[in-house]
Amino acid sequence: MARREIGQALFEAQLGQHPAGTKPLKGFGSGVLEIRKNADGDAYRAVYTVRFEGVLYVLHAFQKKSTKGIATPKLHLDLIKQRLRQAEIIHRASKEARS
């Protein structure tokens, strides 16, 4: 159920809409968003960016199993930062290839 809902939300985001349950991910500035879905007592998250014109990059999707409150664990945040840097490199390279 959560997987389908997150997939639908990502599809809506690709269409330029702002899906329900989507919020900016704190600490990443504008253009990095988090889809939050809860199902059967579990929390699921998908993080994506719309910082790059005409492209949506999904940076990470995971089941949240926090042992310390509601904060996203550092391991996940570090992975999102790494993938955001990679998305920037990929986007820049593909833009240069089209020129």
What does this structure look like?
By secondary structure, the chain is an alpha+beta fold. Helices cover 38% and strands 27% of the residues. Strands 1-2-3-4 form a four-stranded antiparallel sheet. The N and C termini lie far apart (42 Å). 13% of the residues are buried.
- Can you count the helices? 2
Apparent shape: globular
Average pLDDT reading: 91
Walk across the major sheet and give the strand order: 1-2-3-4
Helical amount: 25-40%
Per DSSP E runs of 2 or more residues, the count of β-strands stands at 4
Question: Low-confidence parts, pLDDT < 50 over ≥5 residues?
Answer: none
Question: What proportion strand?
Answer: 25-35%
What is the topological layout?
Blueprint: H1 2-14, E1 22-24, E2 32-39, E3 42-49, E4 57-64, H2 74-98
Antiparallel strand pairs: 1-2, 2-3, 3-4
Question: What key attributes describe this structure?
Answer:
99 residues; alpha+beta; 2 helices; 4-stranded antiparallel beta sheet; globular; 4 strands
